[in-house]
């Protein structure tokens, strides 16, 4: 396993490994200028070889669940039987990628062969992590294929901007008028719910705690947030009032899946600083989950020869003085 580290002129650092493009460290300054990790990480890098929560990794070929592990009569691996989740048993996460590091940039490439996890087509994936002197992390993910296939990637960092035990007091601003309705198996039903008057309304900044403790049936069923929000073309913001850190997100993707680490207590090794449920939040920019089964509300995730899949998400870090 190889690891690379890059740094910007302000001292922010990013480390990643060639296994699943997993980001193993990302530091950002607080209001006092102290640089600390803003993502959860394992205590030992070798633990990323068994990473049941996809910590810091790129997820695909398709992130999320595909009902009955089938698209257009093509059978995918039923990695959460009878459904398909996060690209299959290994997907593109539990794979070694070619990795090249420069001063401010780490680039990964992987060729997923025809038939891998049931997917048609040989697909060339490229992932780039870049740190700018404006304290931006830019994540760019592209894919090209030689046969019609499907691609919907996301990046699976678990953010905690203050290093405390939960993200309950993090303030979230999410420009979304609607959220996908999920069934008991966390699969979209094909319905969209207007967020107005519900705990899913983050259009005006509010504490994550308000949703988690709302008693809403859909949130209780998922043990937290694990829902796809339909984005408007406006920035997303996550703010920690204690450290002063703010993360502003801009993306070209239509959906943000918000996941509040609902199963960390069940799946996380104790060496992850003893982290428990709701100790981090994933903000996963992607297309709508299970998109092929919901063409009336979802952008197509088909990728054809000659086309380029292109996902670009910018995470901008700043810190307020009060």
What are the salient characteristics of this protein?
single chain, 322 residues, mainly beta, Beta-galactosidase, Chain A, domain 5, nine-stranded antiparallel sheet, five-stranded antiparallel sheet, 3 helices, 39% strand
Proportion in helices: under 10%
The domain tally reads 1
With strands numbered from the N-terminus, the spatial order across the biggest sheet is 10-11-12-13-26-22-21-16-19
Helix-strand sequence: EEEEEEEEEEEEEEEEEEEHHEEEEHEEE
Strands, total number = 26
CATH architecture: Distorted Sandwich
- Which fold name is given in CATH as the topology? Beta-galactosidase, Chain A, domain 5
**Rg of Cα set:** 19 Å
User: What form results from the Cα inertia axes?
Assistant: globular
Which parts are unreliable, with pLDDT below 50 for 5 consecutive residues or more? none
The number of helices is 3
Q: What is the C-level CATH assignment? A: Mainly Beta
The share of residues in extended strands comes to: 35-45%
Biggest sheet details: 9 strands, antiparallel
Going by helix content, strand content and strand pairing, the class is: mainly beta
Write down the overall mean pLDDT. Answer: 95
Cα(first) to Cα(last) distance is: 42 Å
EC number: 5.1.3.3
Pathway: Carbohydrate metabolism; hexose metabolism
InterPro entries: Aldose_1-epimerase, Aldose_1/G6P_1-epimerase, Gal_mutarotase_sf_dom, Galactose_mutarotase-like, GH-type_carb-bd
Family: Belongs to the aldose epimerase family.
Explain what this protein looks like in three dimensions:
The chain has three helices and 26 strands. The protein is mainly beta and 322 residues long. The strands form seven sheets. It has a nine-stranded antiparallel beta sheet with strand order 10-11-12-13-26-22-21-16-19. Helix content is 5%, strand content 39%. It has one domain (3-319): Beta-galactosidase, Chain A, domain 5 (Distorted Sandwich), CATH 2.70.98. It is globular, with a radius of gyration of 19 Å.
């Amino acid at each position: 396993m190889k690891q690379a580290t890059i740094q910007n002129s302000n001292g922010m650092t990013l480390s990643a490994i060639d296994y699943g493009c997993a980001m193993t460290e990302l530091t950002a300054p607080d209001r006092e200028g102290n640089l600390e990790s803003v993502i959860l990480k394992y205590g030992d890098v070798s633990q990323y070889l068994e990473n049941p929560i996809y910590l810091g990794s790129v997820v695909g070929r398709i992130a999320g669940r595909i009902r009955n592990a089938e698209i257009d009569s093509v059978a995918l691996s039923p990695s959460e039987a009878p459904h398909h989740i996060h690209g299959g048993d290994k997907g593109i996460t539990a794979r070694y990628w070619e990795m090249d590091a420069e001063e401010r940039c780490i680039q990964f490439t992987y060729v997923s062969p025809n038939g891998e996890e049931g997917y048609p087509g040989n697909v060339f994936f490229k992932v780039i992590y870049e740190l700018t002197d404006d304290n931006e992390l830019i994540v760019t993910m592209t894919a090209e294929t030689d046969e019609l296939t499907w691609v919907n990637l996301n990046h699976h960092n678990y953010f905690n901007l203050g290093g405390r035990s939960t993200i309950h007091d993090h303030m979230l601003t999410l420009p979304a008028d609607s959220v996908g309705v999920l069934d008991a198996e966390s699969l979209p039903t094909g319905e969209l719910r207007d967020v107005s008057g519900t705990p899913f309304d983050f259009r005006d900044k509010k504490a994550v705690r308000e949703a988690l403790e709302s008693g809403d049936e859909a949130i209780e069923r998922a043990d937290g947030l694990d829902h796809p929000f339909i984005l408007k073309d406006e920035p997303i913001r996550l703010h920690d009032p204690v450290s002063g850190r703010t993360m502003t997100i801009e993306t070209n993707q239509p959906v943000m899946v918000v996941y509040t680490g609902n199963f960390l207590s069940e799946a996380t090794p104790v060496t992850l600083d003893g982290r428990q449920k709701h100790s981090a939040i994933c903000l996963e920019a992607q297309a709508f989950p299970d998109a092929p089964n919901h063409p009336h509300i979802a952008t197509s995730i088909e990728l054809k020869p000659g086309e380029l899949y292109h996902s670009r998400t910018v995470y901008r870090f700043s810190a307020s003085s009060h």
